[in-house]
Amino acid sequence: MTDPLLCNDVHSQLNPVRVAQIHRPRSTSEVAALIREAARDGRPVSICGARHAMGGQQFGDGTMLLDCSDMKEIGGLDRERGIVEAGAGLTWPELIAALHDEQTGESPVWTIRQKQTGADDLTLGGALASNIHGRGLRMKPFIDDVEAFTLVDASGEVRRCSRTEHADLFRLVIGGYGCFGVVTSVALRLAPRIKVARRVEVTTLDQLHGKMEERMEAGALYGDFQFAIDECSQDFLNRGVLSTYQPVPQDRKMEEVRTLGADEWRELIRLAHTDRTRAFETYAKHYLGTDGSLYWSDTHQLAVYLCDYHHDLDCCLGSGAGTEMITELYVPPQALTDFMKAAAGDLRPRGVPVIYGTIRWIRRDEESHLPWAREDFACVIFNLHVEHDRREPAVEAFRALIDLALSFGGCYFLTYHRWARRDQVEKAYPGFAEFLAEKERRDPEGRFQSEWWRCYREMFSGCGDE
């Protein structure tokens, strides 16, 4: 029998946590009442949305879990400023559909700027908590898309946070992993919906920087580079599919574009575990076949996600339980080629398969308290296979990749795992101890807790005495 209080993240499934109770509030007032109730009972509170994040920030053992995925109210759309008030539990497809419905017959149609890639059923609250980014070539992290938000703090007080009101909380909460309260709604900055053309070619790292610069100068708005993942090939982490999206005249006719269906994605995932060269070639062939195709700037960011795909895959392959764990690393764009060559040399002998990998670009974040984009960075994403009963090889591989990124003056994303050493955390996030101190000051009773926060509280427990 399934235990309804046993929670886990959707993707890696490496964070099983048993909470004490689960509530699904639908409004800010319900959240405030639940926080006050937790305070009276001395109960810690954890916060989740779609449960995709892999770092343990959604759950805490023994906590009252507030599942905010039912907070889906859409407020008014300010067409003059391009801002919408949206419930923190809304997923990206729900928000896009609601915006389209609200603006039937209007021009321009306001829509989202960016979202996480790879999965769609992720909530706005989760995007804010992790300060996410997408495939925008000139975009800053998600904090730049947020005009304001409504927060219920540790005392149950409702606060409206923006760059002018409770500005300190605005900086702490975005990218604050739920440590300072429950975000119930977000005033989101939007962009006009436009048509874009996909440009696709297969190239190599030594040519990537120049080609991307050319495309950005020509106006490309989105793009990425999906690199080869077969460690036995000379192409490993070097050859890849460069895709960018360029605005086109809005009167151009949209034609139906062939997309990969769920069964085709399932086969690609199987090949990524069994024949990684063939997986890359299959993927590249499909994408090359879409060169020149037209897309909308919002819906082209949506993707197929296969829930719990690894269960069937493990049965098919006759292997033990395993899943993929993501890490995201940031390096200066001019260091990207050297970083990737060094990463290839480190990963080849480890026996930890790369199942998926991509490179994106991000602009500097000058606002959040824990900025991961301290400079304009190239973002390198590795999705590594992790055997559940033998995790140490993957743990060491992730730590080695973080060391490598730091050696190039880079950083890494805190969202995906808690396997970094303290010295790595401190080097990547010099303000992390101050962040924990702010958490203690603003929530002295530890009302908001998670396995993520508990891990780092313990890791830094003696930092003030050193």
Structure overview:
With 466 residues, the chain is of the alpha+beta class. The chain folds into two domains: 70-192, 2-Layer Sandwich (Uridine Diphospho-n-acetylenolpyruvylglucosamine Reductase, domain 3), CATH 3.30.465; 195-425, Vanillyl-alcohol Oxidase, Chain A, domain 3 (3-Layer(aba) Sandwich), CATH 3.40.462. Helices cover 30% and strands 23% of the residues. The protein is built from 13 helices and 20 strands. β9 and β10 form a beta hairpin. α6 (262-274) packs antiparallel against α7 (276-288). It is globular, with a radius of gyration of 22 Å.
Provide tags for this entry:
466 residues; alpha+beta; Uridine Diphospho-n-acetylenolpyruvylglucosamine Reductase, domain 3; Vanillyl-alcohol Oxidase, Chain A, domain 3; 2 domains; eight-stranded antiparallel beta sheet; five-stranded antiparallel beta sheet; 13 helices; FAD; transmembrane helix; Oxid_FAD_bind_N; membrane
Give a concise summary.
With 466 residues, the chain is of the alpha+beta class.
Q: Could you report the average pLDDT, rounded to the nearest whole number? A: 96
The parts where pLDDT drops under 50 for at least 5 residues are none
What Rg do the Cα atoms give?
Answer: 22 Å
Helical proportion, percent range: 25-40%
Distance between the termini: 49 Å
- CATH topology name of the largest domain: Vanillyl-alcohol Oxidase, Chain A, domain 3
- What is the percentage of strand-forming residues? 15-25%
Task: Enumerate how many helices there are, as a single number.
Answer: 13
Q: Report the CATH architecture of the largest domain.
A: 3-Layer(aba) Sandwich
Number of domains as seen in the coordinates = 2
Largest sheet: 8 strands, antiparallel
Gross morphology is globular
- Name the CATH class of the largest domain: Alpha Beta
Structural class: alpha+beta
Number of strands: 20
Strand order of the largest sheet: 16-13-15-14-18-19-17-20
Pfam families: FAD_binding_4 (PF01565)
Protein name: FAD-binding oxidoreductase
Keywords: FAD, Flavoprotein, Membrane, Transmembrane, Transmembrane helix
InterPro entries: FAD-bd_PCMH (IPR016166), FAD-bd_PCMH-like_sf (IPR036318), FAD-bd_PCMH_sub1 (IPR016167), FAD-bd_PCMH_sub2 (IPR016169), FAD-linked_Oxase-like_C (IPR016164), FAD_lactone_oxidase-like (IPR010031), Oxid_FAD_bind_N (IPR006094)
